[in-house]
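Chapter summary example.
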Amino acid sequence: ILQRATPWYDGVPAVQQCPIAPGKSLTYTFKADLFGTSWYHSHYSAQYAGGAFGGTPNAGIAKFSFTSGKTHRLRLINAGSEGLIRFTIDNHNMLVFAQDFVPVVPYTTNVVTLGIGQRTDVIVKGTMPPNSAVFMRSNITQRCSTANQPNAVAAIYYEKADQTKTPKSTAQVFDDSKCGN
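The structure predicted for these 181 residues follows.
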């Protein structure tokens, strides 16, 4: 977010503003002049890298619903603090149309590369039969990371799929030989 008229609200303690004391609060007021996918995170000490946001550990596989013949917008965010990730959906391509608040010339791909803090908006067509289930995958590039668990999955269930069964889909193949797009 470009805070053109409020640069003192950069969020980094002791850089442009005093830290917010424990138990206290501060209301940020600024004009949002860009649109698109965004997120917020802590800039204090190691809170961001230590997980001051996110899901619950051991919560099981997240489930998403797709409908055959429909299009689905996904807002992808690399909220990690260490590695480059590759996002894929088994048996699907994605139409990328915006990155970090900026509309881009749309292009189709089977893998989206996201740097730390990067956001990408994609459209995915529901091309599978109604009883299908597939995985979406977010993999940290192992050449560029020391992560102990570099792979994450979530399940996409189409409208007539049996949600008690784990998808049996196969991962997309892509070039993971470099630490960049």
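To summarize the output: The chain has a mean pLDDT of 82.
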